[in-house]
Amino acid sequence: MRIALFLSAWLVCLGAVAAPNDPATLDRTTWPEPLSSPALFDVASRAEILTFAHALLVSEGLDENGLKERLGLKVINMDAIDKVRQRLWQRLLANYNFAQQSCDQDASFCYYVEDMASLREQAGKFEVADDSFYVKWAEPSAGFHRRYLDEQLRLAALSPQISSEIALLGDQEFNGEDMHDRLFMLTFDSGPTVIGGTTDWLTDYLRKQSMSATFFVLGNSLKARLDKSSDQALRALYKGQCVGVQGWEYRAHSHWQNWQDSVLRSTALVKQVLPQNYVPLFRPPYGQRRADSGAFFESQGLQVALWNIDSQDLAGSLTAEQSAHRVLTLMLLWRHGLIAFHDTQDKVRSALPWLLKATVQSGLGWEECEALGAQ
């Protein structure tokens, strides 16, 4: 769905383009040790950071025509790509500095990095030896990070004609990049499902884990569920959770004439039915919103909540396991942030338990959902 929308919108703006590749994923079983301590989480984090940094550095050797060919686009926004690259380097440096604080406990993937120049130097010569303990992970990881980097550069290349989560458009927006190290928050889009569906399973599962998440609901789905149940049933469904809005229907709000009405109607319904759960947050479907929408959101007391870790669980090419493995790899790379799943996808029933089990001993924190509304 997301690919089709990106493609159709860009066709109108700039002519034919090639469809993007399938989302990147990495088989985490290629990593030879469990993340059974904070130090071992840092080892894996350093490894993913250096691999991505190497891919980023290599990409800078391509000229504009080379990037067009690699990204499958006829027209690209080089200024936006350069800005994204600069931001990525800053994040990589900050994250590596966090990750190397445990080098006295395990020196794997610990190299001399104290500034941007030394990070770029280490990224340029980074490689995993053929006899390394980590050799089975090295090639799959390199492939993952090249493809994931292409995802990010493609989003930048298509902007501003197609907005996305790749960049903030104003002070009323956030994406989780400013969260504390090792702190993550779960978010779920596009619900609720029909009675007895994945939303019911998920909210019950989170309560059993003593966890909370932010659910960005669609007005029409919430109304359909309300028509078949009651206010009380919906309040029980979302007990202990936070509820933001994603508009009245899952449709890009960047070129939709009635986008403001979509936001207002869904917000009014959530406030009416779930006043104790409501948080003043809007998540744009596909990450698409108007560049001049900031004044509207500010007037409504709303913030735009994007994300920096995308499960890609809507992609039919990814299994639940692959989606979970992708999320964990990006958690190791970015070390904090907002994780985007869809509670309309059954994949989350296995992806989320696997993710929590894989990280239970790694020293991570899961932020309570109320903190998101307080941004």
TrEMBL record:
Regions annotated as coiled coil: none
Gene Ontology molecular function: any one: hydrolase activity, acting on carbon-nitrogen (but not peptide) bonds
Any one Pfam family match given in the protein's UniProt record, by short name: Polysacc_deac_1
Record domain NodB homology: where: 182-369
CDD domains registered for this protein in UniProt: CE4_NodB_like_6s_7s
PANTHER family: GLYCOSYL TRANSFERASE-RELATED (PTHR10587)
Name of the protein in question: Polysaccharide deacetylase family protein
